[in-house]
Prior knowledge:
Layout: E1 4-15, E2 23-31, E3 35-39, H1 46-53, H2 56-59, E4 63-71, E5 74-75, H3 81-84, E6 88-91, H4 104-114, H5 119-132, H6 148-160, E7 166-170, H7 178-193, E8 197-201, E9 214-219, E10 222-228, H8 229-233, H9 237-242, E11 267-275, E12 299-307, E13 311-315, H10 322-330, E14 339-342, E15 345-348, H11 352-355, E16 356-359, H12 372-378, H13 385-394, H14 410-423, E17 428-432, H15 440-455, E18 459-463, H16 467-473, E19 476-481, E20 484-490
Parallel strand pairs: 3-8, 3-9, 6-7, 7-8, 13-18, 13-19, 16-17, 17-18
Antiparallel strand pairs: 1-2, 1-4, 4-5, 9-10, 11-12, 11-14, 14-15, 19-20
Amino acid sequence: MNEDIINIDHVSFCYKGASKGLLNDVSLKIRKGETVLLCGASGSGKTTIIRLVNGLIPHYYSGDLQGDVTVAGRDIRNTELYDLAGVVGTVFQNPRSQFFSIDTDGEIVFGPENIGLPPEEIKKRFADVKDEMQLQELLGRSIFGLSGGEKQRIACASVSALLPEVMLLDEPSSNLDIKAMNDLSNAVARWKGQGKTVIISEHRLWYVAPLVDRVIYMENGRIAHEWTGEEFRSLGKQKIKELKLRPVEFDPNETADTADASVSEDAVVIRDMYFSYNEKPHVIRRRKFSDYDEKDLDLNIPELRLPKGKVIAVVGHNGTGKSTFFRGVCGLLKRCTGTITADGKVYKGKERLRLCYMVMQDVNHQLFTDSVENEVLLSMEEEDKGRCEEILDSLGILEFKDKHPMALSGGQKQRVAVASAIASGAKLLLFDEPTSGLDYSHMEKVGSLLRKLADSGHTILVSTHDPELIAESCDYILKIEDGKVESLTRK
């Protein structure tokens, strides 16, 4: 039997400034070469365990730490982070947070260079990782020009180049499409085959469940259940649902019909929407988009009819134009042509801002005032505190009206942004990855909110890589590929 490489012994931890501990007397041993899944609701302690293993606790995140943690024979209290770099590698939920270079080649070799390896060894590791992870098409590119899935692949490669014994992945699939999730699954399988110890904290289970040797279920800072991989995969759908986990078995291809949907006359109609990021220089006049080759257009939508009062999932691979489409619809792209017709009125250019409201993936970027009430009032053409309270009450956040938005939880912040959207009078609401990183319960709540908004007469566009949200809540699926509408199907 393989020896234990990680030993967490009766550990309790409370972050500095927190009123209660996030881990309560947790003991966990992980054998060398084992692949372990950490699952459970948000806030149950999964990420805290990851931070214990990679040394971010206590060397970066301070607090009251009781108990002992050893990794590959090293006591994490007495081991500096740089001494753990060659032993433990971490791939974070947002790969941008761990990048140090501006190009892909530099990012892959940053770790080996940083620990002072000889140039010959650095070149060898670069070549090995490039071939092993099939990165040829990503080499020599700017980090800023990569899609979310491509950034995740580079993050995995940069960690792999250090040849760590332990690989940690914290919610790695949050921003990935189906293809990128399959690529990530293949990467985990390669690490497993190389004998590495892999620990994955994850809500989306179906892509990783076949690979794990053991599953740890966290609840309120404790290990509530533990299964072998085989036991976990045989629990059954009902038991998984009772545990409030996302499905272990899921076919993402089952969410859509193959036939195009017909949309009635009562529709939101987008016409002649064209845009290119690579605008050609002009001397006398701007170049018309009709002069462009089709392949040079980043947005190319002659006509699109959206069913009114429905929830429409906007899908497509990472980097295929979904975000550009959203910005174009909202009137946020300068020089984006086109009109949107809704309820008999035609909206052009910046007029589309009055028709649309976008709730961003990171709502922190759109919260500006010092109270929830003021945030909602800011969106109204004329302040109406009575209407404001009605909206907050309908979303279950009236009790927070006097609180600072930044003091709320992630889900509460999102509902504040939705309240602002409703208060603005926008008829077309756009949500960018609203369930990214959410557990099953919170995903259900978001889905219920989307349905409620559609039932009240709003037309909802949801950019998402979450097939479970689509299955639960969406009426139609709009597929965008290379800035063009590939299909609109009824679910």
